[in-house]
Specification:
The protein is mainly α. The protein has helices at 5-27, 29-38, 42-64, 73-87, 94-104, 110-143, 147-171, 174-189, 200-208, 211-228, 230-238, 245-261, 271-282, 287-296, 298-327.
């Protein structure tokens, strides 16, 4: 049966939700709820940690943007990107499309905006891959070869293939080919050429001609990934199940590997939690505590994601009002 792409995305989402429900029942609904309640102010701290990650990610994006813009724009739009990716069924990439479009509302050319998002995405996923490899290395050092290590290695292999393909498309003419095809189709059909397409390949090439900016963005993203392990570390601390930071880093990084390998599941729902439960078991954590830690990591998704979507709508409404005034 040929299921449309949009339908596949929804099926993937249903699978993730079903997996999450199954994990919750396995861990014990009452025990998970009690653990959640016991976290107290730790939840607010985890939300703050995520907010820092999101805003600093905007600084990394600004590093590869070849345009003058107010310092707060990229962090704000990075917040919007995050909200869309974690709360809407867009396979974790829809936020980038919206982010590039919103950037043009602040005076950045379409091609320049799109090129900055593509470059930022490549730097982000490359450093994420390195972060996951660091976690896998630490896991192998402590536990050696195991079934879980092999499964996680398989996830990382799939992730690496995806990152490699993304690199090839950007650096070996794939973007230029797509640009020419879109322009040719639009002209042939008499359609307007989509904003941000013409000149995209040249704009992207200009970004890669400045490796110092890419290095700055890479260093920032890598620091963010490592700092993100604080979420697991803090969650387990507040649940009364402390682990050292190295163990938290392994759990955080390899849950990212699982989520990246099954990227089609919106927000990685169920996938991230399943990986944390499996990895937590290796470190002696019971399923209810590991699952609760995973669910605590979802709180920033909901709170910051909702605010990000609200910011998106405010920006859109301001744009509509500006166009209305110009029309008058």
């Amino acid at each position: 049966m040929n299921v449309p792409s949009f339908g596949r995305l929804h099926l993937a989402g249903i699978f993730g939700v079903a997996l999450l429900i199954g994990l919750t029942l396995y861990g014990g609904l009452g025990a998970v709820a009690a653990g959640f309640a016991s976290a107290g102010w730790g939840t607010a701290i985890i939300v703050f940690v995520r907010l820092v990650q999101v805003l600093i990610s905007g600084v990394a994006w600004r590093c590869v943007l070849r345009a003058r813009i107010l310092w707060w724009v990229c962090p704000l739009l990075r917040w919007v990107r995050e909200g869309i990716n974690v709360l809407l069924p867009v396979a974790q990439v829809g936020g980038e499309i919206v982010g590039a479009r919103l950037l043009t509302k602040f005076g950045v050319g379409g091609a320049t905006a799109t090129a900055s998002v593509l470059a930022d995405m490549l730097v982000q996923v490359t450093t994420q891959l390195l972060f996951c490899l660091l976690g896998l290395g630490l896991f192998f050092i402590k536990f050696g070869k195991s079934d879980l290590a092999l499964w996680m290695s398989g996830c990382l292999l799939l992730f690496a293939v995806g990152v490699g393909g993304f690199f090839v498309v950007q650096r070996w003419g794939g973007v230029g080919w797509v640009e020419k095809r879109i322009v040719a189709i639009a002209i042939g059909k008499g359609w307007p050429v989509p904003e941000g397409v013409v000149g995209l390949a040249d704009s992207l090439e200009a970004v890669y001609r400045d490796p110092s900016r890419l290095a700055q963005a890479g260093a920032i993203h890598m620091a963010i990934w490592i700092f993100g392990a604080c979420e697991v570390w803090l969650a387990l601390y507040w649940l009364g199940q402390p682990v050292d930071f190295g163990e938290a880093l392994v759990i955080e990084s390899l849950s990212h590997a699982a989520r990246a390998a099954v990227f089609i599941v919106p927000g990685g729902v169920g996938i991230q939690e399943g990986a944390i439960v499996a990895l937590g078991a290796v470190y002696g954590l019971s399923p209810q505590f590991a699952l609760t830690a995973g669910l605590l990591k979802r709180v920033p998704d909901l709170i910051l994601g909702a605010i990000g979507l609200l910011i998106w709508q405010v920006i859109e409404l301001r744009g509509l009002r500006s166009r209305s005034k110009e029309a008058c």
